[in-house]
Each structure stands twice: as C-alpha cells, then as structure tokens.
Design a protein that fits this description.
By secondary structure, the chain is mainly alpha-helical. Helices cover 59% and strands 0% of the residues. It has a domain of 45 residues. The two termini are 22 Å apart.
Amino acid sequence: MSAVDSARAVLDAHARQTRETGPVHLSDAYLRAVDRVEALPDNCSGSDKTWVIRLVQEATRVRSSLTRKR
C-alpha cells in the first residue's frame, strides 16, 4: 500500500466517524460584539454594498487565471 493509499484510508476512516454535537453556547460578550457589528452603517439596509460584487468578480477572475502545478 502506497503512502497516498494509507493517507486516504486514514482520512476515509475519520470521515466515517460520527461526531457528537450539542448546542452551541455563545457568550454574552460575543453576542454584544455581533450586535455592534450588525449596527455599523455598512451593514444597514440601503447601504452601498457594490464592493461585495466587485470582490466576488475579482476573486473569480483571479481563480480563473490560476494554473495547477504538479
């Protein structure tokens, strides 16, 4: 078995394991920080968010110009 096959076997076994998850508890400080960020002018309804479109377009352009090297 090659090293790649061994690594795949380990990753596959890990992916098949079930994970116990419970409720996520957020601290009061974290929730206050979220409230502050959501109240910023840039996050209000009607604010200019065209920068998001430009960011996505630029990221797409950069990603499309990448080449894989082996």
